[in-house]
Structures are given as structure tokens and as C-alpha cells.
């Protein structure tokens, strides 16, 4: 009986989500254990948010509508903790639908869950279609986003009768960075943070420009050294064709919509191909997913099988790129400039409006001068120095990046002065080594997830999960419960 019900519910939700967001809905299976409700009931709401938290003259008392999702069916009203997801660079539904761990934990710990959308992403556009014009775009900063979350949390705690409820923030990737920053900047509101796959060091300019693409390469190397060799040789063949300007051959081998005609086109082709490998390394989950696009289970393994199928290396390279760009199997040809946009983030900005916002952030506060070199990695040499970044950002947005600001503003290597943060990282994730890999104190805990890709721990539990992530989630659950208990004791003691 319950099965029929489950199918119906999932079906309804699927339709709803599909119509609104074009995302399949496969990760919130309704699970009833001990008769308890396990399925999150998600309500989409908007909050009247201050446009400019830091300048009283620029926008007066101007506001915009900030979107957030509320899940209150697990909450022990007025008592259970608040689990707050600090939204990052995209539509908040996409993060909510790919962060099932948070709602599973909320069911266990009777928490209220809020997923807040980051300003300038998804539907949280301060100036509608004009949001990406200069100077309005200037209101897109990390500091403004954090202040949005602080104001939203404070207001919702009042409205919902939750002023005594401890707040734990969650985030993955840039969202994980925001979770760390919330704990640093608003310890009056936030008791603890789970920062999954948060590259807080490399994005603050503390790292090595070769690390990222070296680690992407390592993932493929781990599957089979012949795999990375095949990739190198395919790029070598491509380079020879390009050097000899046999552009029509490149077009026909790689099924490009238009033949490349310049070095710029070839560079763009390299970037597009490198991006496919990057995405497969980041999203190398043990089951198929829909997050930043559709991915098969174990995409790195699938890619290596594809690279090693037969002796036509360029065909193999084309089919490997197809795992990312041709997910429907209906693409007639690759449109170089339509499928990939070059921007200030060499790991890719995605497409659409969200890519504009992320490009701006990569041009201002968030440093990602990552380069491939064909020595420590398997890709053609594609540089992106601080001066390349400066030149691009000034041309594109009229801004000069401030590479040292994040480190100054958010404690950089002095993180040991804070507390209650989990830094989790999977060893398959090329972002991992840009984050904190060693515990800094008993309450600043680094967790390693062997066999884990980009914030696997935030995803809902799955039968294909490696043991490491099951253990990591258990550790996270225990630490969070402990922080919440300690906060209650502290609140009771304070007058
Ligand atoms: C902004 O302030 C002005 C002047 O006090 C007031 O007339 C207006 O209603 C306020 N607008 C909002 C959205 O609060
Ligand atoms: C996309 O996949 C289909 C089905 O496998 C294939 O026929 C087509 O050639 C692919 N397109 C490109 C551009 O590789
Ligand atoms: C990579 O390096 C090898 C060895 O130096 C060189 O032969 C090859 O042309 C390089 N490949 C690319 C794509 O630059
Ligand atoms: C996690 O793994 C990295 C890389 O292997 C290692 O350097 C680090 O010490 C490990 N950290 C923990 C907390 O086990």
C-alpha cells in the first residue's frame, strides 16, 4: 500500500519540479521508518531583503525579494535546531535537491531547515534583468550575501518563535566557504558550520596554481595510467592538426558545428574539453546524478573506458566530451561557444545568468588562478595568471580583482582562532586540496572521505555510498548534536 502512495507522491513532485526547474527529482524518496515522516515538505517563499547592508545612501531603504525554501515538517517547534543552507552560485532548488543529508539529519534531530538563495542567483535578482549591469552588479559581494543570511535568520527566528533555537549552517563548495564565514562573522547567530568541499584556502590565494588540474588528472590516473596517456595523446594529435592548420579535419573528427579558424578557437576548444574532464572528476559519484547537469554513475571510469575504446583517439575524445555535453544523445554537433563560456573561473562558470554572477565574483573577491601545464597534468598548457585575470576582469566588468582581500577579511591561515566547524573533503574532489585537510583544534575538525567526490557527504544516503561517507556523516551528526546541546546549556546559563 505504502508503495503506491510513494510512487504517487514522487510522481507529483517530479512533475512540479520538472515544470518549474527542469530538474528530475530522484533523491528524495519517501522513506518511513518507525512510522516517522521522512519526506521533506518544501515551501518556496520570498523575503524582503535590504539591497545594500553597508551604505545607507546608495540605495536608501531599497529592498529586493530573496528566495528561500522552508522545511518545517521535522521541526520540534520552538525547540529543535535550525539547519540553514548558505546558498551558493545557483538556483537554490538545485542545492536543496542535491543535499538530502541535511533533511535526513533534520528528521533525526527534529530541526527546522532553511535553504536560502544567494543574491544575484536563481530568482533572487535585485534588479531583475538589469542585475548584471554596472554599477548594480557591485552589490554582489560575499559580505552582502552573508549579511542577507544574518538578517534573514534573525527575522525568521522571530517570526517562527525560534529565538532560542541554535543555528547550524551547512554549505557545499562556495556554499561551504560561506558557512565558514558565517561562523566567523556572525558567531552571535551561528553556533556551528558544516563546510563540505570548501576551498577556503586556494580561493584566498593560498595555494599552488597547478594543484587543481593536477588533482583532476590524478583521478583519471587512478582508474588507469593508460587512460591519462590516451588523453595526453589525443590532445597531442589535436595540437598537431591545429599547428598544421588542418581545421576542417578537426571539425569533422570532433563534430564541431563550425570549423575553428584561429588560435583563439583552438584555445576555446581545449578549454571546453578540459572542462568536461573537470566536471567528471568533481561529480564522480558512485551513482548517476543530476547536479550541474546529468552524469552517469562513476563518470571518471566511464570516461576512461571511452578513451580506451578503439584506436581512434580523437573519436574517443569526442565521445568522452559527449558524456558531459551530449547527455541527451541528440546533439548533432558541438557548438564551441554555446556549450562553454570562458570566464574568470578556469574550472568553468556554467551557462546562463548564474554564470555572469559567478564570473563577477571570480573577478572581484574569489581568486581562482588555476592553470594546466601538460607536465603535472594531462591537459594542454592553458595559463591563467593574476595579470590575465586583471586584464580580463577590467575589460569585462570594469573591476580590478583584489587577490588578498578574502584572506584578510576571513582570517586566511588564522582559522584556528574560531571553533565549531567541520571541514569535510573527498579524496576524489579536485577542490579538496584547496581546503582545510588537517584538524586545527578539537572543534575544528577535518574529515577525509575516501572515494568521495565534491561534497558527497551532503547528498542523501544511497545504497552505493562508500563506507567512508557513512562514517563521515555519522561523525558530522554527532558533532552537530553536541554543538547544539552545548549551545542550549550556554543559553540557559546566560541571564
Ligand atoms: C523608504 O523610506 C521612505 C522615506 O521614509 C518611505 O516613504 C518609503 O515608504 C520607504 N520604503 C520602504 C520600501 O520601506
Ligand atoms: C551525441 O550522441 C549521439 C548518440 O550517441 C551521437 O549519434 C551523436 O553523434 C553525438 N553527438 C556528438 C556531437 O558527438
Ligand atoms: C605535451 O608535452 C609533450 C612532451 O613535452 C609534447 O610532446 C606535447 O606536444 C605536449 N602536448 C600539448 C598538447 O601541448
Ligand atoms: C586527509 O587526506 C589528506 C591527503 O591524503 C592528508 O594530507 C590529511 O592528513 C588527511 N587528513 C585527515 C584529517 O585524516
From TrEMBL:
It holds the Pfam family Peptidase_S28. Homodimer. GO terms for cellular component: cytoplasmic vesicle; extracellular region; lysosome. PANTHER family: DIPEPTIDYL PEPTIDASE 2, PROTEASE S28 PRO-X CARBOXYPEPTIDASE-RELATED. Its EC number is 3.4.14.2. It comes from the Eukaryota. Gene3D superfamilies: alpha/beta hydrolase, Serine carboxypeptidase S28, SKS domain. This is Dipeptidyl peptidase 2. Keywords: Cytoplasmic vesicle, Glycoprotein, Hydrolase, Lysosome, Protease, Secreted, Serine protease, Signal, Zymogen. Its main location: cytoplasm. GO terms for molecular function: dipeptidyl-peptidase activity; serine-type exopeptidase activity. Plays an important role in the degradation of some oligopeptides. Residues 1-22 form the signal peptide. One of its GO terms (biological process) is proteolysis. Belongs to the peptidase S28 family. It catalyses: Release of an N-terminal dipeptide, Xaa-Yaa-|-, preferentially when Yaa is Ala or Pro. Substrates are oligopeptides, preferentially tripeptides. It is found in: Cytoplasmic vesicle; Lysosome; Secreted.
Amino acid at each position: 500500500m505504502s508503495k503506491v502512495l510513494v510512487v504517487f507522491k514522487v510522481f507529483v513532485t517530479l512533475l512540479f519540479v520538472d515544470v518549474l526547474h527542469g530538474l528530475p527529482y530522484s533523491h528524495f524518496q519517501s522513506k518511513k521508518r518507525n512510522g516517522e515522516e521522512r519526506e521533506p515538505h518544501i515551501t518556496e517563499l520570498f523575503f524582503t531583503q535590504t539591497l545594500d547592508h553597508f551604505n545607507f545612501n546608495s540605495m536608501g531603504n531599497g529592498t529586493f525579494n530573496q528566495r528561500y525554501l522552508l522545511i518545517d515538517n521535522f521541526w520540534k517547534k520552538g525547540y529543535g535546531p535550525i539547519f540553514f543552507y548558505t546558498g551558493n552560485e545557483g538556483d537554490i532548488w538545485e542545492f536543496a535537491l542535491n543535499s538530502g543529508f541535511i533533511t535526513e539529519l533534520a528528521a533525526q534531530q527534529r530541526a527546522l531547515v532553511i535553504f536560502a538563495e544567494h543574491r544575484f542567483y536563481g530568482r533572487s535578482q535585485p534588479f531583475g534583468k538589469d542585475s548584471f549591469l554596472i554599477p548594480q552588479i557591485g552589490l554582489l559581494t560575499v559580505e552582502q550575501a552573508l549579511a542577507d543570511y544574518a538578517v534573514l535568520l534573525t527575522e525568521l527566528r522571530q517570526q517562527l518563535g525560534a529565538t532560542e533555537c541554535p543555528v547550524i549552517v551547512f554549505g557545499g563548495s562556495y556554499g561551504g566557504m560561506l558557512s565558514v564565514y558565517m561562523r566567523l562573522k556572525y558567531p552571535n547567530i551561528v553556533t556551528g558550520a558544516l563546510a563540505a568541499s570548501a576551498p577556503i584556502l586556494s580561493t584566498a590565494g593560498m595555494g599552488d596554481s597547478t594543484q587543481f588540474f593536477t588533482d583532476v588528472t590524478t583521478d583519471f590516473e587512478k582508474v588507469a595510467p593508460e587512460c591519462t596517456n590516451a588523453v595526453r595523446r589525443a590532445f597531442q594529435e589535436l595540437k598537431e592538426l591545429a599547428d598544421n592548420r588542418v581545421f576542417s579535419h578537426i571539425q569533422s573528427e570532433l563534430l564541431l558545428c563550425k570549423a575553428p579558424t584561429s588560435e583563439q578557437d583552438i584555445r576555446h576548444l581545449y578549454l571546453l574539453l578540459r572542462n568536461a574532464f573537470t566536471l567528471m572528476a568533481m561529480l564522480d559519484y558512485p551513482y548517476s546524478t543530476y547536479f550541474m547537469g546529468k552524469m552517469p554513475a562513476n563518470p571518471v571510469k566511464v570516461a576512461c573506458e571511452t578513451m580506451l575504446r578503439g584506436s581512434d583517439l580523437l573519436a574517443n575524445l569526442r565521445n568522452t566530451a559527449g558524456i558531459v555535453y551530449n547527455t541527451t544523445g541528440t546533439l548533432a554537433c558541438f557548438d564551441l561557444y554555446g556549450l562553454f563560456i570562458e570566464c574568470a573561473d578556469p574550472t568553468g562558470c556554467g551557462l546562463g545568468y548564474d554564470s555572469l554572477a559567478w564570473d563577477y565574483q571570480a573577478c572581484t573577491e574569489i581568486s581562482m588562478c588555476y592553470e594546466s601545464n601538460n607536465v603535472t597534468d594531462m591537459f594542454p598548457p592553458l595559463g591563467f595568471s593574476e595579470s590575465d585575470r586583471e586584464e580580463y576582469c577590467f575589460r569585462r566588468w570594469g573591476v580590478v580583482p583584489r587577490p588578498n582581500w578574502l584572506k584578510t577579511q576571513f582570517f586566511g591561515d588564522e582559522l584556528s582562532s574560531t571553533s565549531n566547524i567541520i571541514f569535510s573533503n573527498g579524496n576524489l574532489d579536485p577542490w579538496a586540496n584547496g581546503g582545510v585537510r588537517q584538524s586545527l583544534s578539537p572543534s575544528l575538525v577535518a574529515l577525509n572521505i575516501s572515494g568521495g567526490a565534491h561534497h558527497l557527504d551532503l547528498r542523501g544516503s544511497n545504497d552505493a555510498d562508500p563506507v567512508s561517507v557513512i562514517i563521515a556523516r555519522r561523525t558530522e551528526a554527532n558533532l552537530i548534536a553536541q554543538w547544539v546541546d552545548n549551545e542550549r546549556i550556554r543559553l540557559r546559563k546566560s541571564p
